[in-house]
Amino acid sequence: DASLWRDQLPALRAAGRDAHVTDVHARHATLPEMAAALLAEHPGPLVLVGTSMGGILAFEVLRQAPDRVKALALLGSTARPDTPEMIAYRNDAIVLFEQGRIDEVLQTNLRFVFHPSRLADEALVTDYFAMIHRAGVAQLIRQNRAIMARADSRPLLPTIGCPVLVVCGDSDAST
Predict the structure, then answer these.
(1) What is the pLDDT confidence band of residue 59, given thresholds at 50, 70 and 90?
(2) pTM for the structure as a whole
């Protein structure tokens, strides 16, 4: 949610950038629906910055309207579809979400979300848990299903005609 960008937004705006954080991921069930809504709600040229699912959504926006995307920043994201093992992991997480066991899933996910040196950062971990809890069970399930159903974006890579920044941590266990 927008809290993920709370430190960057003031700096971007101070630099004269018209920065917005979309919430289409919270209002729509599939990546194509999310991308169509983003395009409808933000007319004109776009510079997309996406972390994790946000980067995956940026690929879908690029797929639907390549001429509108003027630059991309993909942070800790991937063009690859989920592996069968990751799909099974997500399906297991959905079952746990439905059982009200969100914190159990979050605790397991910490090793994927944070650098090992930050796992003991109580404020950071608390922020993460709070953000996921704000999303709620229904949204977490929708988002996991959307991610599992995403298109393989690797064939799209050679067609990208705008500047792209790709950032991934050296200990990123997900991407």
Answers:
(1) very high
(2) 0.92
